[in-house]
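Bumping with the actual sequence this time:
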Amino acid sequence: MLVRLLYASRSAVETDFAVIEILHQSRHNNPPAGITGVLCHSDRMYLQVLEGGREQVNRLYNRIMNDPRHTDVTLLRYEEISERRYASWTMGQTNLDKLNAGTLLRYSVLPAFDPYSLGGESSLALIDELMSAAAVQGRT
């Protein structure tokens, strides 16, 4: 059974270094576990979507909740899915500091990125728009 998990967290360490480290680990560990997804980051905040088998995604989310690089880990959405939306990405990434305020306002009350104030559906719609605009980078 496939699931999709979306969470927000705050970085407990300097963001640029943490993002590089998280992406490196994800791109190494996710393929054998069958996990795909996208990491969005901005000003010490993360919004990440993970897809894969229920056991594998749950295990990874548990590691994230206990990872000292993350604080305030908050589950925004968890659902069973029939197919992956982010199958092309072992872990895609996008820097939301470069996001156009108008794009963000389509999904958020304010033009500042705050993943805790976005709903799960709005967050996924934002990520989908970033993918369609080729704003998500990474390796397949």
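The tokens above came from a reply further down the thread. The chain has four helices and five strands.
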